[in-house]
Design a protein that fits this description.
568 residues; Rossmann fold; seven-stranded parallel beta sheet; 21 helices; 36% helix
Length: 568
């Protein structure tokens, strides 16, 4: 019940305020994360918002409206506004009111209530996918438009529970190894097995489509392999880049009985279609001109796929959403560290890939030792006098670049590199001119999108083997780098406040360390500029995952304090 000592204030506009300096802060934060979205996180009060999509995702994971209201009341300082309770019940009650089922060759949309059926019948964007109204509660719909119908209905404010089932796909029999090729005992961790089992749902119609949310470094690839093993079917895996493609292939060879003949790479370099084919999003969306067809979409029909895995599903390009809408009879698994999309297309992920099926808080995995304990630092520095006028007169986009490329970041980078000389360090940024200057000054190799794949692999290998202790990396470091010994990241510039990028960059250093040491994530930010504004947006991700976020000025040398001191 409400208590003035509690940390939450629930407001009638569906926003929820959470006091940071409260003994119940962490409990309340973890509870909110199940059904609300973090909007902003300044020092003392964090703001969450309860949205229809956040409630539908929680409903899809089995949470009830009563549980959501009880959770809010448990931590509320004041009574919950009545309209909030009503809307939670209303929105969560919508999940399951509409179902898609299969009867023989027919795809049927079934409604729980006649009023809802009338609303659907009157909606022009939905009506175009309906072939016939069978009775007051049932419509026959075009099976080829299954995804488009689901998308139209969620835009109408009514999610569909898809129980129409799937094609089984071409059979592919393989086993998981108990020992890797290098002779190391291996098996799925419990949470990885739980995630695969939840997605599979015993092979029934209530499973087979949806998203698993796990931190970078927690083994999302292993969850995908677990789903493949459950289904024993030909699988298409889509990845953000060539490095990720080759890591998938390497892991499948190392940890399953699949052979090189079973695995195909479909990228700009190779075009192999085999029982398990691993492709990049880039090749999927390549076309000769804007007016031409996406010629590589033919891969979706090249075999009778039984499963499609979307690695880093938050990066799924818009054209691939369109083709996904046409293959709803194929099982679909999305893997990601964050459901946040910078293009605000989270509803498309929900309707076309599926709802969130499983997630595991980063801090819980950290507590269990599956990912490294991390301390995050924001080091704020002044803009030099010589750049202040230029900054003041610049347009907004150029303002950020001027602040992000602040030359006074270089001395701090050198201090950090000197302090961490025994560590394995990634210096990450988005502006190539800035990164080249840093690489030249500290005499470390630079990896960008233009670095040939062979050279990238050579440098990554040298880093893994300890021959290189520092890598300067552009946005290529955001995705699928297997550098388990990296334990320090220094972020000098980022993509305009991208939470998903923050997730990826932090994930680069979260593999558990053999010696149990802490990982450190530094962001260098120019005070009172757009750089600081965007840093506040990126910080949302760290906050919602429960990470300690230490803010200091450039002259404090906070990196010399032991990380343990921030947890006391």
């Amino acid at each position: 019940m409400p208590n003035p000592m509690n940390p939450l204030i629930v407001q009638s506009d569906k926003s929820v305020l959470l006091e940071v300096d409260n003994p119940l802060y962490e409990e309340a934060r973890d509870s909110l994360a199940r059904f609300a979205e973090l909007v902003k996180s300044p020092e003392y009060v964090h703001t969450y918002r309860v949205t229809p999509l956040s409630l539908w995702n929680s409903a899809a994971m089995g949470m009830s409206a009563r549980e959501v209201v009880d959770s809010l009341e448990r931590y509320a300082k004041y009574p919950i506004p009545d309209n909030i309770k009503r809307e939670i019940v209303e929105y969560m009650g919508r999940y399951g009111q509409l179902t898609l089922t299969k009867e023989g060759p027919d795809l049927l949309l079934q409604c729980e209530e006649e009023d809802l059926a009338e609303l659907i019948w009157a909606a022009k964007k939905v009506r175009e996918y309906i072939e016939e109204r069978i009775d007051e509660l049932t419509f026959r719909v075009d099976p080829g438009k299954r995804g488009f119908l689901k998308h139209a209905l969620i835009e109408l404010g009514h999610p569909v529970e898809d129980l129409a089932g799937y094609v089984e796909g071409e059979a592919l029999h393989f086993d998981m190894r108990d020992v890797t090729l290098e002779g190391v005992p291996w098996g799925l961790r419990k949470y990885q097995q739980d995630a695969a089992d939840t997605f599979h749902a015993g092979g029934g119609v209530r499973g087979g489509s949806g998203v698993v949310v796990l931190p970078c470094g927690a083994g999302k690839t292993m969850v995908g392999m677990g789903a493949m093993e459950k289904l024993q079917t030909s699988t298409l895996i889509l990845c953000p880049n060539v490095v990720a493609v080759r890591q998938w292939i390497s892991e499948l060879l190392d940890k399953t009985t699949l052979t090189p003949e079973d695995l195909g790479e479909y990228t700009g370099d190779m075009k192999e279609v085999r029982p398990v084919t691993v492709a990049t999003y880039q090749i999927m969306t390549w076309r000769k001109s804007r007016d031409d067809e996406f010629e590589h979409f033919k891969i979706f029909e090249a075999r009778n796929w039984g499963l499609i895995i979307y690695d880093e599903v938050h990066l799924l390009p818009a054209p691939v959403f369109r083709v996904t809408a046409t293959i709803q009879a194929t099982r679909r698994l999305g893997l990601t560290a964050t459901l946040v999309r910078e293009d605000d297309r989270e509803e498309d992920v929900f309707s076309l890939i599926g709802p969130k099926r499983y997630d595991m808080p980063w801090k819980l995995l950290e507590d269990q030792g599956w990912i490294a304990t991390a301390v995050c630092y924001e080091i704020r520095l002044e803009l030099p006098d010589g750049l202040r006028r230029k900054y003041a007169l610049a347009e907004d986009r150029k303002k950020y670049r001027i602040a992000a490329e602040n030359p006074d970041k270089l001395p701090i980078i050198k201090e950090l590199l000197s302090y961490h000389q025994a560590d394995n360090i990634l210096v990450i940024g988005m502006y190539l001119d800035q990164l080249k200057i840093i690489a030249d000054e500290v005499k470390a190799p630079l990896i960008t999108g233009k670095t040939p794949n062979v050279e990238r692999q050579r440098l990554y290998g040298a880093f893994r083997e300890g021959q290189e202790k520092i890598l300067i990396v552009s946005k290529v470091a955001n995705f699928a780098l297997d550098l388990p010994d990296a334990n320090v990241a220094i972020q000098v510039s980022g993509t305009f406040g991208s939470r998903q990028e923050e997730a990826q960059r932090l994930g680069r250093i979260l593999r558990p360390k053999a010696d149990g040491s802490f990982a450190r994530f530094y962001s260098l930010v120019t005070k009172d500029t757009r750089d600081m504004d965007f840093a506040a947006k990126r910080q949302l991700f760290l906050t919602e995952q429960g990470y300690q976020y230490v803010i200091a000025s450039a002259d404090e040398d906070i990196w010399e304090r032991r990380p343990e001191s921030f947890f006391s």
